[in-house]
Design goal:
about 130 residues; 2 domains
């Protein structure tokens, strides 16, 4: 009976983590729809999850495991949207140029903002230097 304890406990933690993600998502969608917010329900759900984790003070093991597995599969989750772009018919050259420009500019803005945020979080942008 004890041989099942480890795997069963891991399974229960995983299911608990998945349930937390699902509950936050569904609750966020319901709140967004009920209040007719201009923000997608999934974003409201992520904010609820963030608030809950901040109040709890740490990330539970089951939630960390499920989140890690989902992050490893993140590229596959974007695949259907990326493939769908190629089935857009009737787009002119100007439409494709605008789409390409939006993708490039959006990517560059994201890279710059991520670099600035990382610099700020790591404390490299505050003028401290070991050379001084």
């Amino acid at each position: 009976m004890d041989s099942f304890r480890g795997p069963l406990q891991s399974l229960m933690q995983w299911l608990g983590g998945a349930a937390v993600l699902l509950i936050c998502d569904v609750t966020g969608r319901q709140i967004s729809q009920a209040l007719t917010l201009p923000v997608p329900g999934s974003v409201v759900g992520m904010l609820l999850l963030l608030l809950g984790l901040m109040l709890y003070g740490r990330v539970p093991r089951g939630l960390a495991v499920v989140s890690g597995q989902l992050l490893r599969l993140l590229a596959l989750l974007f695949l259907p949207a990326a493939v769908g772009v190629f089935y857009l018919e009737g787009l002119s050259v100007n439409d494709w140029l605008a789409l390409l420009a939006a993708l490039v500019i959006g990517t560059l803005i994201s890279l710059v903002l991520c670099a600035l945020l990382m610099q700020k979080l790591l404390g490299k942008g505050d003028g401290d230097s070991a050379d001084d």
